[in-house]
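Can't paste images in this forum, so I'm doing it all in text. The chain is below; anyone willing to post the predicted structure tokens underneath?
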Amino acid sequence: MNNMNQQEELRINEETDSLDIKELIERYLRHWKWFVISFAICYTIAYFYLRYTQPIFNTSAKLLIEDDKKSGSGPSDLAVFKDLGLFSNSSNLSNEIEILKSRSIIEKVVRELNLRKTITDKNSKTGLKETAFFDNQPIDLTIVEEKDSLISRTFLLEVIDAETIELQYAVGNKDLSKPIKLKFGEQVDLMELVFSIDKTSFFTNNLDGFNYEIKYITKAAAINQVINGLKIETVSKESSILQLSFQGALIAKNEAIINELIRQNSLDKIIDNQEMTRKTSEFIGERMEVISKELSDVDLRNLNFKKENGIIDVLVDAQSSMSKESTYEQQVIAVRIQLDLAHYVNSYMDAYKDKYELLPSNLGFEDQSIAKMIDFYNELILKRSKLLANSTEKSPIVAELDSQIKSIRSNLKTSLNNLVKASEMKLKSLAAKENLYSSKLAQVPDQEKKYRDIQREQQIKETLYLYLLQKREENEIASAANVSNVKVVDYAYTSATPVSPKSNVIYLAAIMIGLIIPAGILYLIGLFDTKVKGPKDIESLGLPYLATIPHSDLEDPIVAINNPRSSIAEAFRMLRTNMSFMANMNEKGKVVFVSSTIAGEGKTYIASNLAHSLALTGKKTCVIGLDLRAPKLAGRFGFTEQKGVSNFLVDEKLTVTDCVHTKVANENLDVLSSGPIPPNPSELLLRKRLVDLFDELKQIYDVIVVDTAPVSVVTDTVMIGHLADVTIYVVRAEKVDKRMLKVPQDLIRQQKLPNVGVIINDIDYTKSQYGYGYGYGYGYGYGYGYGYGEGFEKPKSFWEKLKHRMK
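Text version of the structure:
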């Protein structure tokens, strides 16, 4: 019946597997010292990392990109082109971002701030943290001539005294040269570079022995450093404000880079507008030269005509007709001016039809759409020139601009042609009306009529000349008042909190790592450590658990004799009590087998001490050694092997009393040792005389404790298992692999041994207190009332354990 219950318990435990969270937490908390040590180490590393790592600061500025109408330069209003898809705010901001990040502008920043040169203080006491200078260095590198600009150079110098330095140098990543001595301000030619090391206003006379490092990198590398640290983005999708950010270790350097970039961008835009103004001035100047020559010719014709015909004044009787005719003449002049302007611009565009040249602006077209188209065309030309500084004509942005330029150029040509046609039609209409009044002057002499023609042509030329002169002055005034369309909202400002390293994140990471490392190590130890630790391992497999026998450093083989109040003696009492739940131990002749999986698990130790514990209760007890292959029972009780089980089984003349040692360590305890090692132990155990032996012993003793052979090594124990009433299966902690527990599982499942109960031997409570904690409650119970010195061994220190092992 008991075997059936054990099999059912095995089946239930194999089907269920649960995780005890509380036990898992307690397992880690018992190693709290390791967690504290790991935390302290990681926290210390984080502290020194933050202390000796150069902090990185973020510097920002904000720019407002105004439209040209608000900026006062360029096109007056480009909003009319949005319906045609030729202009949008987002594309303007994107272009502005690309311009700000262009290598041409960054190169100017690098040149103005001398960013190719970095001077570092190498005088840190720990050598872990170096300080870079920016405009406050005590010494400086002055470049006289650079013969090769494609190599980087490194200088390491030591100040000898106020006049002398010791210099080492290297090209690229090569090793430093041998030191040479130089005077401050002395020009030298090394590494294709003519230079000198000079003092600055920050130099003092107490710098003897100080070391400095100077790095002079290539222009391309310096530009790349600025581009990599620069970030430009819009504040929001609807906003026209750009935010410029730069990250670096030196706040002054960061702010200088941002402010210089803003200055160079504004200066670049002003130069672009001045270029447009210059082109317009050149165009006006060329036209004025032509008109001036034509006006001189008309004046000469007028003078010659008067001399030839003697004309002094206009006939009085023609004043009325001439007055009305004059009105139409003014209109003809205005139309002719617009027509000439259209022809001039048209011819200029034809002359540069295959080139991207700026068109003259602000010429005074009455048709405002033409004037706006010209201004927008010029803006696109300037943007295209900017983008080509950092890209090619195959770039998608350039290609898009080219498409817009062609579209605007085509629309402008169409508008100019339409203006020409409209002006010509208007001239015909005005000419018809003018002829109406001219007919009234038919009586005026032909000379006067010709004079009027000359005078009219002269007036047209004069008006056009004065008009161009006015536009030239307006263009010069616009050039003098030229400003950028970029307004600075905020100049460079830097937050006092560094963006890297972030102390909160570093400390949090240190805490996490400090906890994860010991937890991971403990997890791996538990994962790869497959040794049996305690009752939890037994119960997890559904094996019936009886008791735990603690570890002892005592020399006594029978601990209950000299240490009756020890924790081990109490453990055997617990085992004795728990056995009564497996079988009725009050009945006479109960047989208790003690076995194990492999040798060395302490089954002989358990059998001898269990027998003594039973004898102390007044039960007549006999302990038998049936491990015929490796007998140890006699040694436990301090006598040599004489006559024993093997003798009894071989010699039928021997009786039980001839082989039994009576009253060993207790008046109720007898010992029947194994005897000499036989050549055929398995065959001996199969003899009927063994059954007769047990039958005779059952008549004499209340309890018979049998020390048997390990079950996984030989089959001796299994062969005689039918003789047992109770089987105590010994598992030694920290010795037996958990996978070997399949052996007792199979024995129970196959019913090869009766009433199997498992005990854990050699549990070290000093380890369980700080380690895995499989004491299962006994660590507390055994210590109660006894204390150290009352049989419960005090945990030994490391040095005590070391001395014990060296003995």
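The two ends are 51 Å apart (CA to CA). The chain has a mean pLDDT of 79.
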